[in-house]
Design a protein that fits this description.
The structure is a homodimer.
Chain A lengths: L3 H5 L2 E2 L5 E2 L8 E2 L2 H16 L3 H4 L5 H13 L6 E3 L3 H15 L5 E5 L4 H14 L4 E5 L12 E7 L11 H10 L3 E5 L11 H4 L3 E5 L12 E5 L43 H14 L4 H22 L4 E2 L11 E5 L3 H10 L2 E2 L1 E3 L3 E5 L7 H16 L16
Helix pairs in contact in A: 2-9, 4-9, 5-6, 10-12
């Protein structure tokens, strides 16, 4: 059983800040600075080029992929780290489309993260083969799975509302219709229990800078089902996905299994941060994490709803249908969030009217939730969003 | 005039090592450790999510792109940093192909880096529109430029031999034939004078971990000519290339100019290292660098040829046709390089028989060249490559 009072002590949290934005960018693990400094000074500095072997830089995308795999229900050898999430979405979707050459419909929902949709649009335009990206409301996805479907492409947890799709059910429906199921775990990995193998998902992608706490610009990951890993075509066929990168052959031959989903040179400094973050995750029981996440989000919803009648819950009330965040709609949400941030409660705002709060049991506890609720209540009850200082236009949040 | 004795002091070079592999991975700038630590501790640690604005993480791909632009003949606003070089090759080629929809031939040479060729193969297979990747010998490129050509896709300096293409001439030939010219500057940026605007190149890509010294896994960059930047379609249409990423619209609208070539979240820790590296480059006169590079490579060739008759020069003898590296062919090259490395002269080996040495005036001087020549001469004259310890199979070099 994970002791979350101990994990909280493993993070540097700014003085006076209740950080409810770990679903956007996780905070700094205390060991990360030294871990990164070791890579910079002892490895890059002293080993230079030989670090690729001696410090095992080249192996890290796979070894760290396996450690992420444990958190998302993937057996070792089926996850590899690299690139950004947008690139991994493109890579997975391109491979998925290849598996169903006679079908043209890619189904997603309007709660998917825009970049996933944009990458799909770009791929479809490049292919010029008549594919259609069908974007439906989240609750209508199941009804749109039919025998035309090529790929079901969803983000499991809606970035705005925290609404969670039933991965097992929708994957099974997609398979019954002869389609491929591809999941974005951006708001799932490290947020809840994921069982990719148990759900028989075909592809999954995710990022490591949110719940996994690997820092700004941390790399993404990709999972390919064992059913496809040895045969799938990597559309982004980079040299490090080659069977023998250092043979420098002129012809591409895909590497074994998931290795073929590597593309270019791994981001070694970002991987050092990921290593530090995963060292915490290696000891976490995901079932205990999920229970604690639900306890915190329930506590928060009950507290805010009691104190702030103007805030309308945008997340599902049923915790089984909710990820590890809670969102409220409020027309003055941007300014209200600025007022909260000024008082030390850091959530974020998503246009047009969503105030979003992430609950991350590794470093947020019941006392934080109580304190956050009290500050949000003060902001709402005193109408602090009316103050001109909080009204400026959103830039990056 | 750049004082190269001063720049040498700006790098950490391992004790007893003559590092002739800066063309593969540049060494650690002395300020990098503190610069990265600042980003980790003061920015990620203290600002967390607000670092995207307060520490200007979001702006860095453009501001650092401009600083690289100065080194390669690009005006501000035409270079952006991100992803790996392989991804940037794919991105540039996909956009280039779009500009010449009625043509099907992509011409490259067998001296191009394999990953560029692999990425092109992968893109062509995805497109399934009958494109052909024509791979010719480097010296035959000009003769193969004809009215069928869609895209001329070359790496300016051959990674094995250091042979340099005439960018101005070949770009002009491509344009005369109605084709697009795309250049990979992996072994050019920071190695020699590049004038993208003067050559009227259409696209260029490059990496920052070689001559630019930004560390293992440092990001790539992409240049798009002002003639195309405002109209080109970004095939990898990620959210940070959107006109308004934080509006979270469901439809993709490309950002202004080069901004549309951004894809996903910038690698902030790697960018901190790049910032440290560029702080050195900001003061370098590229003409002086090129003169010094030629002086060092000439000194090295004369020295090695005099002492090592078994080594066959694989690089052009004319410095005007050579990048900033010198390569020799030798059947026992792998073992001979291991023997050199064991004696502190670090170059690298490229299959099947290339011993490769990079000359980087920022931290390699005439004394280093003399010392390296003496050690290589000892290895060759004493046939040290025969020692079993040096005979093991190449892994990563």
């Amino acid at each position: 059983m994970t002791d979350f009072s101990k994990t909280k002590d493993m993070f540097h949290l700014p003085e006076g800040m209740i950080y409810l934005d770990g679903n956007s960018l996780g905070p700094l693990p205390k060991t990360a600075a030294a871990r990164i400094a070791r890579t910079v000074t002892d490895e890059w500095g002293e080993m230079v080029i030989t670090g690729w072997n001696r410090a095992e830089w080249m192996a890290q995308p796979s070894t760290m992929g396996d450690r992420i795999g444990r958190l998302i229900g993937a057996a070792p050898g089926h996850v590899v780290v690299g690139d950004t999430l947008s690139i991994k979405v493109y890579q997975a979707l391109a491979s998925a489309i290849d598996l169903v050459p006679d079908r043209k419909v890619i189904l997603t929902d309007s709660g998917n993260f825009p970049s996933d949709i944009y990458m799909a649009e770009g791929l479809i335009k490049s292919l010029s083969r008549g594919h259609e990206l069908r974007v439906v409301a989240p609750e209508d996805v199941a009804a749109h799975i039919d025998d035309d479907l090529a790929v079901l492409m969803l983000t499991q947890v809606d970035y705005r509302t925290g609404r969670m799709h039933d991965m097992a059910d929708l994957t099974q429906r997609a398979h019954s219709a002869g389609a491929i199921a591809m999941w974005d775990l951006a708001h799932s990995a490290g947020a809840l229990e994921v069982d990719l193998a148990g759900c028989d998902a075909d592809f999954a992608v995710g990022c490591t800078y949110k719940y996994l706490n690997a820092g700004p610009g941390a790399p993404a990951f990709i999972y390919v089902s064992p059913r496809h890993a040895a045969t799938v075509r990597p559309a982004l066929s980079g040299w490090l996905g080659h069977e023998a990168p250092f043979a420098f052959d002129l012809d591409y031959r895909p590497g074994a299994g998931i290795e073929r989903m590597r593309v270019g040179t791994p981001p070694v400094l970002q991987l050092a941060a990921l290593d530090a973050a995963l060292t915490i995750w290696d000891e976490v029981d995901m079932s205990a994490l999920r229970q604690q996440s639900i306890a915190l989000t329930e506590q928060f919803i009950v507290g805010v709803e009691a104190a702030c009648p103007d805030l309308e819950l945008a997340s599902p009330r049923d915790p089984e249908q909710r990820g590890s965040q809670v969102s409220f709609r409020f027309a003055q949400g941007y300014a209200a969030m600025q007022a909260c941030i000024a008082r030390g409660v850091v959530g974020d705002f998503r246009a047009p009217d969503i105030m979003r709060f992430g609950f991350t049991p590794l470093f947020i506890d019941e006392g934080d939730v109580d304190a956050a609720v009290a500050i949000i209540a003060e902001v709402m009850q005193k109408r602090l969003w009316d103050e001109p200082a909080y009204q400026r236009k959103a830039r990056v949040t």
